[in-house]
Write a structure and sequence with these properties.
Layout lengths: L1 E5 L4 H11 L3 E10 L15 H8 L3 E6 L6 H16 L3 E3 L6 H13 L3 E3 L7 H10 L3 E8 L14 H14 L10 E7 L6 E12 L2 E12 L2
Parallel strand pairs: 1-2, 1-4, 2-3, 4-5
Antiparallel strand pairs: 6-7, 6-9, 8-9
Amino acid sequence: MRLAVLYSGGKDSTLALMRAMELHEPVCLISVISENPHSYMYHTPNIDMTALQSRALGLPLVSVDTKGEKEYELEDLKRVARLAKEKYQIDGIVTGAVRSTYQASRVQRVCHSLDLWCFNPLWLKDQEELLKEVVRSGISAIISSVAAESLDESFLGKRIDDRMVARLVELSRSKGINPAGEGGEFESTVLDAPVFKKRIEILRAKSSFKGNSGLYHIENARLCEK
């Protein structure tokens, strides 16, 4: 089937893309760029990086902006899905949803309205195992935001490798955080993966931290040969 990938640029949507490629044909990425950093539906840290990631993947990107207002932002998802269907003749949409019934049910509703299949290859998978699979699969991702008492500024910009996985798993057991960040504890940005034709190099970034939350904002980056 010809599929579009609802792509945030993070580890889960990249892993979902890789799983979809095993059986189907992803033909484009779709992204919703939210003005609201606290969007109910969409990943926002470094979302502008999806334009560079699409070039790294060699897949076209279809994107729309949204104000990020609850429920109204679904109309923007419907708009971008319709654009992808018209331009690339897609049969369905892939998501990286793991546990959020709120998000998954709404994407399914949009897909149903457009007669598209909704494919959630990570749905209800063990979250500790998913985090480990990200590393095993060769995805190179960094932590781009944190929002939990147990995660301080030192996590920002760090790679999600075996050492970080062990650290997050330990915190999940001792402090109760979700090891894969599914509860919003952290977000990620992917810089390379086996399906990337080129890797992303960060040229300039800055961290900001206040209270129990922080952001690692990539200000400039470029594509490099692998």
